[in-house]
Amino acid sequence: MAENSNVYQVKVTLEDVRPPIWRRLLVSGDTRLGMLHDILQSTMGWWNSHLHQFTSKGIRYSERHADSGEWPEMEDEHNYSLEQLAPRVRSQFIYEYDFGDSWRHVLLVEKIMTPEEARDLHKGRLPVCLEGSRACPPEDVGGPPGYENFLDAMRDPAHSQHELFREWIGDEFDPEQFDLEAVNRALH
């Protein structure tokens, strides 16, 4: 992060999941999209085992893979920053993770602050998560519809998939849990 780069307060909300799963972050405006992807993986609790893309104003941004050939309709995410995709307060764009499950996140810029204005909020460490709500869905659960089925099965011991999901995820999954300290440890 450049010393004089503005600090963005961004709310990240997972689409099509109710009640909402969201995080509020402080991120340097000059953060490249490739690094923003890593930040989002840590913040949400994903494993970074699937492809992803950002979409803004009809343009898609992602990392280039040696085996993917040319993607003329895809911009290289390492060439673009947060402030380029979202230059103003209320700017928003999409981050999609795992094209099979299609976890779509809306990133909304809530505030843009000078480094001095933001210093008390982040204590000199960026990125940082300020707050959030609810646990990230398990990886490979089947997107929003699969997650809803997973939650139904976990709550109901008589559900036909209850034992299967308990063996797969264990008894530890609490959809209401959000651990701010653990998220910030993962970010740093």
Layout of helices and strands, plus pairs?
Layout: E1 7-14, E2 22-28, H1 33-44, E3 52-56, E4 59-62, E5 74-76, H2 82-85, E6 92-97, E7 103-113, H3 115-122, E8 128-133, H4 143-155, H5 162-169, H6 180-187
Parallel strand pairs: 4-5
Antiparallel strand pairs: 1-2, 1-7, 2-8, 3-4, 3-6, 6-7
Folded structure, characterized:
With 188 residues, the protein is of the alpha+beta class. It has helices at 33-44, 82-85, 115-122, 143-155, 162-169, 180-187; strands at residues 7-14, 22-28, 52-56, 59-62, 74-76, 92-97, 103-113, 128-133. It has six helices and eight strands; from the N terminus they run ββαβββαββαβααα. Strands 5-4-3-6-7-1-2-8 form an eight-stranded mixed beta sheet. Helix 1 packs antiparallel against helix 6 and helix 4 packs across helix 5.
Structure keywords:
Structural Genomics Hypothetical 15.5 Kd Protein In mrcA-pckA Intergenic Region, Chain A, 6 helices, alpha+beta, globular, about 190 residues
